[in-house]
Amino acid sequence: MKVLAGDIGGTNARLAIVEIVDGRASLLHDRVVGSHSVNGLAMLVDEFRRSAPMDGVERACLAIAAASVDGVWRPPNLPWEIRSATAAAATGIPATTVINDFAALGHSLPVLRADDIVTLQTGEPDPDGTRALIGAGTGLGMSFVLRDGDGASVHPSEGGHADFAPRTPIECELLTFLRGRHSRVSAERILSGRGLEALYDFSVQRGEHAELAGTAMEMKSEDPAAVVTRHAIAGDDPLCVMALHLFLDVFGAVAGNLALTVLATGGVYLGGGIAPRLEQPLRDGPFLSAFATKGRLSPLLARMPIHLIRTPNAGLLGAAAVAVAG
Question: What are φ and ψ of residue 325, in 5° steps?
Answer without folding.
Answer: -65, -20
